[in-house]
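If you are new to this repository, start here. Below is one unmodified record pulled from the training split, so you can see the exact layout before writing a loader.
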Amino acid sequence: MFYNNVSYNNNSGYTLGKTTTTVNNIEFSNKVPSYRSGLHHHNSWNLSDYTVSASDFVSLDPSSPDFLRLKAGSGLVNVGSDIGFPFNGTAPDLGVYEQY
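And here is the target side for that same chain:
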């Protein structure tokens, strides 16, 4: 199980095995796309007609306390799958942080 992660600005994205379930993850600005097999849904790459961009995030500076936190109004907010963690809004957010 691989839930609520962000792969950002890496040499490659996720490399996950065929039995891995991935849910509520974000992939952005990696040099090589992820290798994905197994079950994956409600991730940034599963969204139709939406491309993740820098404007989705409060900060892309690793030294910031808001690093990879989603901005209010981002298309990645309230589009996740309920996997049993508390969330605010109509559905969980993608990535590490939930909007409160």
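Two things worth knowing about this chain: The chain has a mean pLDDT of 93. The beta strands are 2-3, 6-8, 21-23, 26-28, 39-41.
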